[in-house]
Amino acid sequence: MKIGMGMKMGMRMKIGMGMGLVISAVLSSCAPVNILNTLTPSSSFDRTKNISFGSLERQTLDIYRTDRPKSGAPMLVFIHGGSWSEGNKDIYKFLAEGFTSSGYDVVVPNYRLYPVARYPDMIVDSAKAIAYMVKENPERNFVLMGHSAGGYNMLMTMLVPKYLRTENVSLCRKIVGGISLAAPTGIIPLSEEPYITIFPDRFTGLDAPLNNVNAPTPPIFLGNGAKDKTVYPQNAKALAQKITERGGVAKVKIYEDLNHIDMVKVISRLFDGGSTLKSDIIDFIDRLPNELDPQSVNGFCQ
Question: Does the predicted TM-score (pTM) go above 0.85?
Fold first, then answer.
């Protein structure tokens, strides 16, 4: 089936992630994400803003440190979406609080965007942010997470070890798992601007996650909404199949009532009663190993 992120991706993703994540119903009609963040309490974390992990303007991150740390829990690094042309770490308090209230520290970095950025700049920046946190917290393990375009960045960071290796970080020794939420994986070529400028190979070459399933990776959870018309569920299914055929670990779950934006919205405490997504993510994380087997050649990778 030729279903992917092609012709329908652009406008919906821009409206969904870049102009302000839109929520509905409970907050009455259409309210922007700043209202959601205003209604989200700050009592479960201490937030440090705008930490530089590089010399460029967009190379900054925020850290949400939980006030109720779960023993042995990894740090979570969440990479935001926005069509690689929009989006900002500043709007994700609601998501961070969804995990700090459960005992996890959460890191949310920015990365360079189009028109300044082209492939692989967004992946390079994501890897640099992850490496910064690894070096600042050498005693901790990490779980990587991303939504939509940010999920793509996260997957490429995990599937292509050179990005972290360039930053002197071993993927298989510090990253225990990955969580991909509605991420494009390249099941059909790109055909529209600005994507064909951002990705000159149009997801037909090594710019697509599907074409990088070669090396061992930590376990990956791939979630998609069945009602997602921006990044279709076949993206997750196809990548998981290739990973498992290679001998890796990939878990897919399709959420029947969720669309593209719902895949982050329901992590908010105001909406998490409507889906098992957040509890599924936490269950996945809690089942990951938190100690490295010194006898393992591949570390946390399989």
Answer: yes
